[in-house]
UniProtKB/TrEMBL annotation:
Organism: Niallia endozanthoxylica
GO molecular function: monooxygenase activity; oxidoreductase activity, acting on paired donors, with incorporation or reduction of molecular oxygen
GO CC annotations, alphabetized: cytosol
Domain of life: Bacteria
This protein's UniProt keywords: Monooxygenase, Oxidoreductase
The protein's name: LLM class flavin-dependent oxidoreductase
Residues covered by the Luciferase-like domain: 10-314
Gene3D superfamilies assigned: Luciferase-like domain
Amino acid sequence: MKQGNSSSFEIGIYTLADIGPDPLTGHTVSAKQRIEEIIQAAQLADELGLDVFGVGEHHRLDYAVSSPAVVLAAIAHATKHIKLTSTTSVLSTLDPVRLFEDFATLDVISNGRAEILAGRGAFIESFPLFGYSTNDYDDLFTEHMDLLLQLNKNEKLTWSGKFRPPLNQAEISPRPIHNQIPIWIGVGGTPESAVRAGRFGVGMALAILGGNPRRFKPLVDLYHQAGREAGHSSEALKIGVTGHCYIAETTEQAKDEFYPYYSNYWYYVNRQRGFGMKMSREEFEQMAAPDTALFVGSPDQIVDKVLQQHELFGHTRFLAQVDIGGLPFNQVVKNIELVATEIAPKIRKALR
């Protein structure tokens, strides 16, 4: 078994655990099978030497994971080296104490491999589920992030805020293996989110799902500016890029194989938001063009896109989402293998 690469550029896999029908067969897997396959995918990523594996949080029947920490704990026992992160934890509607203690427990179980990627999520069903108002959308996230960072630094904490009961010399247990858990903020495209991540001095994970990646460069600049102004070191200001990915021997093969699943994915995701239209092949071709952010193509094309974005952002982490739209698990496995054996070595060599 290979150990994860220790270079400064990390490469990994993440999943949101969506449950969608295979558009070619109509078959939909159960939540049980989906979670079992996610654990198998993490094992494979670990065995092949990838650096990070992420699991996202949703509170809907068309997603299999509502508790990333629980699934990552199962993965921790099935893996040895790979870092384990949420992608994302919906911090606005999570109690920061519960979130921190869950991931500190994961950190102990995994011998120091836990991370938290906090975000505001793509859906709002968690607000009524946990008794929060969407009117407090931004204030909740800011207060919860502030508390989460203080919990990460202190074994005992006295704290008060607007949205949860105060803490009075509360003991925060267990403590992480390596003093603190790495914390990131997921940013989807708003300047306010980039500035917030910089002020907090945490990593910024850019979700770049389409279009020209150059449009995210101003966010990176704002992030660094805000971080410097808040007194954070350049070492604390890390950038990651996450995106949808499908790889085949040639770019045309990749597009032919992936189009039905990618069109299917956006159809049911947009239908959840109240509008569902099928993506045409022409629209897909535009999204997958060489100058766009969608990682669909041959291994060399994916490498080129990652390196082009590295020139723009100077990021140190790339996470690929390779299991969307009802894609059969055997094709997910093939993509993980290609990321690890074809893409990661070329990126690492180029950036060494």
